Amino acid sequence: MTQNIGDVDGLVRQRIRALRLAQGLSLGELAERAHLSSSTLSRIENGQRRLALDQLVTLARALDTSLDSLVETQDEEVVSHPISDHGTEALRWRIRHSPDLVILRQRVTGPPPEPSRMRAHPGHEWLVVLSGTLTLRLGELRYRVQTNQSAEFDTMLPHAFGAEGGPAEVLLVVDPEARKGHRHDAEG
To answer: Which tens digit of pLDDT belongs to each residue from 15-28?
Structure first.
C-alpha cells in the first residue's frame, strides 16, 4: 500500500489530535508543553498550517511518543490469514509487532490427559477456551478450563491437555521456546 504526501500529512495531524485527546490534554496544555501558541497548534491539527519538522519533534516529545510513531505509514496488511500448522487441525497466526509470539487455534478431541502424556519444555503459554471444556494438567494438578476462561503457565512444568465431554476449541499464544516444544510434540 502506498500513500501520497497529502495522506501522510493528514495522518500525522490526526495522530497529534488523537494522542492529545487520549492523554486528556487541552489545546492549551499541549501547546504549552510544545512551546507553541494554542492557535498555532489548532491550525496544525486542522491542516491550516504547514507541518514543520522542528515542530513535529517538539510535539512528539510533548506527547511522550517518538517522531517515527507520528509519521510512519501503514504499509503492512491489517488482516492476516491463518496458516495450517504442520499437518494438524491447528491453525496459526503471527503477531506482526511481536514476531516472537505465535497464536495457535486448535481443536482438542482427545480425552483428558494421563500423566504419561505430559511434556515439559522451555517457554510460556497462554490459552483461552473458545468452546467446550479443556482439562489442563500441570504437574500433579488438574484444572477444568471452560468456555471463555483462560490459563497461563510456564511450560517447564510438565503439562498436557485434553477435551472433556466433547471437542474443545482453544486459542493459544506461545512464545518461541514453547513453539519449539509444540513442533516437537507434533512431530513425535
So the answer is: 899 889 888 999 99
